[in-house]
Specification:
- The protein has a domain of 200 residues.
- The mean pLDDT is 93.
- The radius of gyration is 21 Å and the shape is globular.
- A hairpin with a 3-residue loop joins strand 1 and strand 2.
- It starts with a helix and ends with a helix.
- The protein is built from 19 helices and two strands.
- The longest helix has 35 residues.
- The protein is an all-alpha fold.
Length: 487
């Protein structure tokens, strides 16, 4: 029943929004819906952990285990914060005559469908349906990337569609290879993940390795692995800021979820070592490329996009050292990065709107022009680079420890170099944006209450998880790590 409520909320909201005529009311109604969704999700997680009954199978097409619950919870938290932030953001769009009320309503329709697809992915049992749902996230979010219908946003949307569609085609080939060995060598003529898992030990190892490589390239494109990340900076720089928060905070992680499901199948056939090598390869590549582009970046939202590539690389390296505690650290980093990056994109959204540019050379004195956002952005960048006492510090240091314990000493040294480069680049750019004198012609900006509420909400997780990981959340992530490692 609770799962049905979670999945129905976006559709019920779209029905209700058809009858709403005021721009402010659109956002408020939507936020109430996502508050209900988040509360229902939290209640489901509580009951799931208390039940300890193992995976749930519902209606023949849903399969829910600890990994599903973790990604669903992450999506619900960021989606709620984005819905709150959207209240003031979309109202300003209407008041500035950038869009009409009907187009604002269209934004919320797309927002809800986008969130539905991301909530659906971790719940599906059939791997073909997972592929379709991930492709749906691309198609729906492309409209949100190109929402303003200007040259730059349309180009970014098309680039996003083309690159991710090519990537998802590689993922489809990987699924075909997995189905071939499943049906031929294990006698399982089904794409239901639970059934395939039961016979995965009989899969042909050579075919599994080829299939998993296709999966990493295919879904890795959508996850933001370098060098397949090219769509990501353009999409983030042109998307509406609430959507940038969802893209970076959730969508990249949902694609990682799909990779992890196939890794769990491959583990039973070829062992975890092969998956670990792929994670490390893409992780190091992502860290290296991100560090270089962070240092030379001039666009504020592109800067945050390359930071996402960096953190996806860190997560991959965590999974690469999975048997040494890296799986736990990588999963914790998924959640920590989701809330922190959404926080930073929401800050950036207000700054870009006030200064009417993404160019950091033209943005100075945010602390004077927008005191609340300036303080939030300054604290946010320290959280993002992994300074204590913020949440990312815990997960980042845990990944470093896991890589060291795995005796990947050369990789560990490279990580330090690239993390230090990204650290210095982010602090340099954001400090120039926040500090200094604001333009004389620019009045002090009014900061929407909805933006402040969204930042306070995300800030709670950023600080609280840096102080202590709750016991129930710790157990949930531990269960997910065991599933991934096949223990």
């Amino acid at each position: 029943m609770l799962i049905a409520i979670i999945l129905l909320v976006p559709f019920v909201l779209n029905t209700i929004l058809m009858f709403v005529r005021k721009d402010r009311t659109l956002g408020v109604v939507n936020t109430f819906g996502y508050g209900l969704l988040l509360g229902t999700c939290a209640l489901f997680v509580k009951r799931f952990l208390a039940g300890a009954a193992g995976p749930l199978r519902l209606w023949g097409w849903l399969y829910i285990d600890s990994l599903s619950v973790f990604f669903m919870l992450t999506t619900a938290v960021v989606a709620f914060s984005a819905s709150v932030y959207s209240i003031g953001y979309m109202r300003a769009e209407v008041e500035e005559n950038k869009i009409s009320i009907s187009k604002a309503r269209g934004y919320f329709y797309l927002f809800n469908i986008f969130c539905f697809t991301m909530l659906l992915v971790p719940l599906l049992n059939n791997l073909a349906l997972v592929w379709i749902a991930i492709e749906m996230t691309t198609l729906v979010s492309a409209f949100l990337v190109g929402f303003h219908n200007v040259k730059e946003s349309i180009e970014a949307a098309w680039k996003y569609i083309i690159i991710c569609s090519v990537g998802i085609t590689f993922a489809l080939l990987g699924i075909i290879f997995f189905y071939y060995t499943s049906s031929t060598h294990a006698g399982i003529k089904s794409l239901e993940w639970a059934k395939m898992l039961s016979g995965a030990s009989l899969f042909e190892p050579k075919i599994v390795k080829i299939a998993l490589l296709f999966i990493f390239v295919g879904y890795g494109t959508k996850a933001g692995f370098a060098p397949m990340h090219n769509w990501l900076p353009d999409a983030h720089s042109q998307a509406l800021s609430p959507i940038s928060g969802l893209l970076s905070g959730v969508l990249l992680k949902i694609s990682l979820y799909a990779i992890l499901r196939f890794v769990m199948l491959a583990n039973l056939s070829v062992g975890y070592a092969f998956s670990a090598k792929l994670f490390i390869l893409f992780g190091v590549c992502s860290l290296a490329i991100a560090a270089i582009f962070i240092i030379v970046q001039k666009d504020l939202k592109r800067l945050l996009a390359y930071s996402s590539v960096e953190n996806i690389g860190l997560i991959a390296l965590g999974f690469g050292a999975g048997p040494f505690g890296g799986g736990f650290a990588g999963l914790l980093h998924i959640f920590n990065h989701a809330v922190t990056k959404a926080f930073m994109f929401f800050c950036a959204g207000g700054v870009v709107r006030a200064y009417r540019t993404n160019n950091m050379n033209k943005i100075q004195g945010v602390l004077r022009a927008m005191p609340f956002t300036g303080v939030a952005m300054f604290l946010g960048v320290f959280a993002l680079v992994g300074m204590p006492p913020f949440a990312i510090f815990i997960s980042k240091i845990s990944i470093l420890i896991a890589v060291f314990q795995g005796r990947y000493y050369f990789i560990w040294a490279l990580m330090f170099i690239f993390i230090a480069a990204a650290f210095s680049g982010l602090l340099h750019h954001i400090s120039k944006v926040v500090l200094g004198n604001k333009p004389q012609t620019m009045p002090r900006q009014k900061e929407p209450a909805s933006a402040k509420i969204a930042l306070f909400f995300l800030g709670f997780f950023i600080i609280a998880l840096g102080i202590k990981v709750p016991h129930s959340f710790f157990n949930l992530i531990s269960d997910c790590q065991k599933l991934i490692l096949g223990k």
